[in-house]
Each structure stands twice: as structure tokens, then as C-alpha cells.
Design brief:
alpha+beta, 5-stranded mixed beta barrel, 4-stranded antiparallel sheet
């Protein structure tokens, strides 16, 4: 009785094909269910298929720094814009240079495309500056004090922040808010920053003139106007003493030279503080930034209000101006009147760095999907024609085996469609025209795997074996060939994805995905289905329409029989 069990060993060793088919069926049902549960019954479309916004940005260098517009800085700007848009969850945004000074940003139509348009070209120059004086955001009446009392807010612009004098006694000591935001922990928001007068013992004529100009600019600054807020610190250098408005326009400041740059912020995240019931933005500094932060907070903590305040200035506007009560380093946390959207926007800008150049929005164009739709229809028609030719070839040449190939193509198509639909909300994948081309090319890759296996089976039948042993003996040889072929295709797709940008990456991604799915389908569907059908009379008997007819394939009798027929006729040898 042991011999029959061994005889069934290969059939059982073919891996319980029913289990493999059940597994892939469960996977298909789960993916389809997840697709509908995620309310994403179709793949997300790229800008060439769904339409969207195309923005042209022109690089602008600071006066005297025209050489900053170079290939290196432009490539850096493209990389940062890409990260910003992806951080906002906008799928398949395309950012690329055009000429020497232009960048084209294509944003597909979607939920976050408006926010992406607002932030993609934002310079986001973040500096941490010491506060010298603060007042309400409206213009200040001209003081009536004597000239001897008119000390400037900063008579010595190049002095260190700890030695800076505050605004003069003539500056009104009105209470100014800090926009409801503060750096918590060791930093505390100040609610009534009263300027402290101070004078500089010696100042040159140029310094006095500059101080007078700064004083006049501070007094006349009207932060209630959006235009005035934008122009307040325009063109200022990090080493300059500047005037600035709060982001809400309710306060104005005189700020000393920047002590820490926003480029020293390693990361920033928006989190909801459950205990305080508010949104916060936490920041982590680099090693260099941590040391700078520690140095300046040590100096500020010894000053009186408002000279112990630290202004967080983003693009010339003060986001927050908290007090410093002790030496800090390493990290900081901005809290206050944040909404979820504003906290995430600020964290996104801080996380993905400051652009090396300023950019001006040159043109904004709405892209329609009409042209892409026509190209998509043409591509689908071409794909349908190609698929029809493949089907005709399979039926004509492989006959009954064509059923296995067509069912395998159907399973591969279902898996590809559902995964593409789920990848939209998961990682922002969007289907574009090159991706469609990649899916069409995948039809040939998948069909090639079937052909390799079918031909191996036919080779075994030609050697005189029956179908069931032929199916099992052909599989190891076909499996190696399929794996090597798919590995080469996947490697090519991976390299193409890494070295290219934009839409070509969509082609590479789809090609790589379908190549991996080809392996899954061949191992979990094609092979098990072939094993089960080999047990049926239609295929096992070598029916002429099965595609495995031994006579049609030119099968030869076993070699041992041919040796008996060709027995020696020499009597001496006999």
C-alpha cells in the first residue's frame, strides 16, 4: 500500500492547487471590498487625464546676486517644491525647469490643489530674531520729546542681540499681542511688552541717519494693510535690523539681526495637544542650530521685556514673539491660535526647507482633460486591438490552453485595477497616459509567462510523457525562466523610476507593479489551474482542441521501445 501513496506524491506535491486558488480569490475579494470601502472605485487620474492647474514661476534673485540663478539652485528649488506638494497630499504633481529661470508646476485637479498653488512658490525664509521693541500695528504719532531723548530702536545695527537697545522712550508703550501663539515649555508668551528706553553712547553720523530712518519707518508702518505687511521687511538681509508686522497685523516690531536661520530646523510637525486642546507645531533643530539657539536664548533670558522676546519671522512676518525665561536648545514648540490647516501648512513649509531663490508667479493656466481624454481613448483602442490579436493567436495556436491564459489575464487585470485604485488615497498614485502604456505593455509580459510554461509542458509531452507528469516536470524549468525574465523587467522598471522624473515615472511604476503581479498570478493561479485541468478528461486524453494533442505535437515513443525495435541482427552478436 505504500507504493500507491508514493505514486500520488507528485500530485500532492503540486501543492494542493485548490488552496492556492482559494487564496488568490480571497485576495481579489478583499482588494475589491477595500476599493469600495475607501470610496475609490476608480483610479485617480493625473493632470493629462483629469485636468488641473499649470503654474509658471520665474526665479528672482536678490539685488546684486543675479549669479544665484544657476542650475544647482534651480534643481534644489524643483526638489523642494516636489516635496512640498507631495507633503500636501497632491497626487502626481509635476515640477520641472523650463529654460534657465522658469519652473513649470502642473497640479492635478484635487482637494489640495489650491493649497499647493499657494505654497509651491513660497520662499519661506524663516529667521529667529531678537525683539527690540513692539507696539500696536497702527501708525504711531510723531513724538514731542527732545532730540536728546530720541534714541533709535537700534542705533548700532551690527551689534549683537544681547547688547541691542530697545525703542526710545518716545515710542508709545502700548500693549501688543503675540498673535495668540507662543513657544511653550521654557518659552512663555508675553502679554504686555513695555518697551525699555536705552541709548547708545557713541554712534557715527551714518548710524544715526540709519537709525532715524528706521525710527520713521517704524512709526509710520500700518500693519492693518496687507500690502504694508508684505513690504515691511522686503529686501532685508539676515544681518539687518528690520521692522516687521505680526502675521495678523495687530502688532509691529523692530527686530535685530537674525540669530538662527530656518534652514537649521531639521523637522517640524503639526500635532494636536490633547491636554491643552489645541494644535501645536513642534520643531527640532540641527546640531548647529541647537548651539545657536542655546547661545541666543542664554543672552535673551537675562534681558528685560521686550528685549527678552524672540520673534519667529516667516517671510518678513512675525508668526510668534514669545519670551525667553531660560536657556534653551534642541527643540521648540509653537502653540496658540492654530487651526489644523494652518498648523499643517506651517509645519509643511518648515519641514521642506527654504527655497534658494524667490519666485514670481508668471502665469496660471487651467488644463482641460479633453486632449488627454482623446489620447486615452486612442490608447485604449490600441490596447484592445493588441489584446484581441493576442487572444486570436492563443486560441489558434494553443486552443484549449488559451482558456487558462485568458483567465490568468483577467485575474491580473482585476488585481492591477484594484491596487491602482487603492494606491490613489494611500500614496497619492495617479494614473497618467504613460502609466496606461505601462499597463498595456504588461499584457505582453504576462502572456509571455504563460507561453513559457505551455511550451515546457509541450516539450515534456513530445518526450512521450503523459499530461500530469508533464505538468509537474515542466514547472521547475518554466519557473526559473519566468523568474529571471520578470526580474530583468522589474530591474529595468526600477532603474527607469529612479533616473527619470515626471510622467515617465508613472510608466516605470506601472510596469514594475504589473511585473510583480505577473509572478503572483503565475504562481498562485496559472500553475494551480493547470494542475487541476490536467486531471480532466478533455486535457488528459490529449483532445485535438486541448492544445496538448500528442500526435499534433509530434510526440515520439519512449526511447527504450525504439531500442527494442532496433535490436542487432548479427547472429554472432545475438
Amino acid at each position: 500500500m505504500a507504493a500507491p501513496k508514493k505514486g500520488r506524491g507528485p500530485a500532492g506535491g503540486q501543492g494542493r492547487p485548490g488552496r492556492a486558488l482559494a487564496l488568490i480569490l480571497i485576495v481579489m475579494v478583499a482588494l475589491t471590498g477595500g476599493m469600495f470601502l475607501a470610496d475609490q472605485p476608480t483610479p485617480r487620474l493625473g493632470i493629462d487625464l483629469a485636468g488641473g492647474t499649470s503654474i509658471t514661476l520665474e526665479a528672482k534673485a536678490e539685488p546684486g546676486q543675479e549669479q544665484a540663478i544657476n542650475q544647482t539652485n534651480m534643481d534644489t528649488a524643483v526638489e523642494i517644491m516636489n516635496r512640498r506638494v507631495n507633503g500636501l497630499g497632491v497626487s502626481e504633481a509635476e515640477v520641472q525647469t523650463q529654460g534657465k529661470s522658469n519652473i513649470i508646476v502642473n497640479i492635478p485637479k484635487g482637494t489640495n490643489s489650491a493649497q499647493a498653488r499657494e505654497q509651491v512658490g513660497t520662499t519661506a525664509k524663516l529667521y529667529f530674531r531678537p525683539v527690540l521693541t513692539v507696539a500696536q500695528g497702527t501708525p504711531t504719532p510723531a513724538p514731542s520729546a527732545s532730540s536728546s531723548d530720541k534714541a533709535s530702536p537700534s542705533a548700532t545695527p551690527k551689534a549683537s542681540s544681547s547688547d541691542k537697545a530697545a525703542s526710545p522712550s518716545s515710542t508709545p508703550s502700548t500693549t501688543a499681542t503675540t498673535q495668540g501663539r507662543a513657544v511653550t515649555g521654557a518659552l512663555k508668551a508675553d502679554s504686555s511688552p513695555t518697551p525699555k528706553a536705552s541709548t547708545t553712547p557713541t554712534a557715527s553720523a551714518e548710524e544715526q541717519a540709519a537709525a532715524a530712518k528706521l525710527q520713521k519707518q517704524f512709526e509710520t508702518l500700518d500693519c492693518s494693510s496687507q500690502a504694508s505687511r508684505a513690504k515691511a521687511a522686503q529686501g532685508a538681509k539676515p544681518t539687518d535690523t528690520v521692522v516687521a508686522c505680526s502675521s495678523e497685523g495687530d502688532a509691529k516690531y523692530v527686530l535685530g539681526p537674525a540669530e538662527v536661520s530656518g534652514t537649521e530646523v531639521d523637522s517640524a510637525k503639526a500635532n494636536f495637544d490633547q491636554q491643552r486642546g489645541m494644535w501645536i507645531v513642534s520643531m527640532e533643530f540641527s546640531d548647529k542650530g541647537s548651539k545657536q539657539f542655546q547661545t541666543i536664548t542664554k543672552k535673551l533670558s537675562a534681558q528685560q521685556s521686550p528685549q527678552n522676546q524672540f520673534a519667529i519671522a516667516l517671510d518678513g512676518e512675525v508668526v510668534s514673539a514669545p519670551q525667553v525665561n531660560e536657556t534653551l536648545s534642541g527643540s521648540a514648540e509653537i502653540s496658540g491660535s492654530f487651526t489644523q490647516q494652518s498648523a499643517e501648512d506651517l509645519a509643511n513649509v518648515l519641514s521642506y526647507g527654504a527655497l534658494p531663490l524667490s519666485f514670481k508667479e508668471q502665469s496660471v493656466t487651467t488644463v482641460t482633460a479633453a486632449l488627454g481624454g482623446e489620447q486615452l481613448r486612442a490608447g485604449l483602442i490600441a490596447g484592445a486591438i493588441g489584446l484581441a490579436l493576442v487572444v486570436i493567436y492563443l486560441v489558434a495556436y494553443y486552443r484549449g490552453l488559451a482558456l487558462i491564459a485568458l483567465l490568468s489575464l483577467l485575474v491580473s487585470g482585476i488585481l492591477t485595477y484594484t491596487i491602482m485604485s487603492l494606491l490613489g488615497p494611500a500614496i497619492g498614485f495617479a494614473l497618467n497616459l504613460p502609466a496606461v502604456c505601462g499597463a498595456i505593455v504588461a499584457i505582453g509580459i504576462t502572456a509571455d509567462s504563460f507561453i513559457v510554461y505551455f511550451e515546457r509542458i509541450r516539450d515534456e509531452i513530445r518526450e512521450g510523457r503523459t499530461l500530469r507528469p508533464a505538468v509537474e516536470r515542466a514547472w521547475p524549468r518554466a519557473r526559473r525562466t519566468i523568474l529571471v525574465s520578470d526580474f530583468v523587467s522589474f530591474l529595468a522598471a526600477a532603474v527607469l523610476f529612479v533616473v527619470t522624473v515626471g510622467k515617465v515615472q508613472g510608466f516605470a511604476f506601472t510596469l514594475g507593479l504589473t511585473t510583480l503581479l505577473d509572478v503572483v498570478v503565475v504562481f498562485l493561479f496559472t500553475k494551480p489551474l493547470m494542475t487541476i485541468l490536467a486531471r480532466t478528461k478533455f486535457f488528459a486524453s490529449g483532445h485535438p482542441w486541448s492544445g496538448l494533442d500528442p500526435k499534433r505535437l509530434g510526440a515520439k515513443p519512449p526511447l527504450r521501445r525504439s531500442r527494442r525495435v532496433n535490436a542487432p541482427t548479427d547472429p554472432k552478436e545475438a
